[in-house]
């Protein structure tokens, strides 16, 4: 019997791989001499089963998407060195979606984005907007795995991970996306423009307004730019409120 989405989610949380039975049409029947149906041979009745690995990412629900990310080995170096993947966290129907670069060492250990010092500053930025992590807010990264030594994601790594993020965005349907820092902004916008040229205006990401601001880790090093970051967040808030 197929598992409910809830049961799949619970199994996923427990780290148990989930198998998805393929929807099979009713087994064809042959007619006996009286025209009554009799069951076909067992071979024809056998239900085929496929793993979720065969379903396109763009068609996955949350639980199966999480499973696919957890088992991803597309970037062999990252997969080999990670403690765990960092999927993303928050309200699955949030109006606000914040996207950073990639997990750091604390996120790699904890399994949640932005839990280190930069994450605490991000939480303060959310609080200044009257928001809280997990309530109308979703936080994700360009990469689901930590790059060794916290190096920038390679273009090939960002490309390999992109369908996961795209699917998260499609499922969330946010009102606004905030790109945190140059790497996230350039990757999402397919641009090599410097951060200064990408800030202070609204972009379009597949129909969703996107605003670029400084990465919280940069703001820890350059607190003088917090005022500029605040003006970026006000621009994003106008979009989130539908202004
Ligand atoms: N920096 C990021 O870009 N993402 C995290 O999750 C943590 C630090």
Short description:
The chain is 40% helix and 15% strand. With 243 residues, it is of the alpha/beta class. It is globular, with a radius of gyration of 22 Å.
Please, could you describe this protein's structure?
The chain is of the alpha/beta class and 243 residues long. It has a single domain (56-240), classed as 3-Layer(aba) Sandwich (Uracil-DNA Glycosylase, subunit E), CATH 3.40.470.10. The protein contains eleven helices and ten strands. It has helices spanning 5-13, 42-45, 62-70, 76-81, 105-110, 117-128, 155-172, 182-189, 195-198, 216-221, 226-240; strands at 19-21, 30-31, 37-38, 49-51, 89-90, 96-100, 137-141, 176-180, 202-205, 208-213. The strands form three sheets. The chain has a six-stranded mixed beta sheet with strand order 5-7-6-8-10-9, sandwiched between helices. Strand 2 (30-31) and strand 3 (37-38) form a beta hairpin. Helix 1 runs parallel beside helix 3 (62-70). It starts with a helix and ends with a helix. Mean pLDDT is 86; it is low at 9-41. Uracil binds at residues 100-104, 107, 113-114, 118, 141, 217.
Topology (elements, then pairings):
Blueprint: H1 5-13, E1 19-21, E2 30-31, E3 37-38, H2 42-45, E4 49-51, H3 62-70, H4 76-81, E5 89-90, E6 96-100, H5 105-110, H6 117-128, E7 137-141, H7 155-172, E8 176-180, H8 182-189, H9 195-198, E9 202-205, E10 208-213, H10 216-221, H11 226-240
Helix pairs in contact: 1-3
The structure holds uracil.
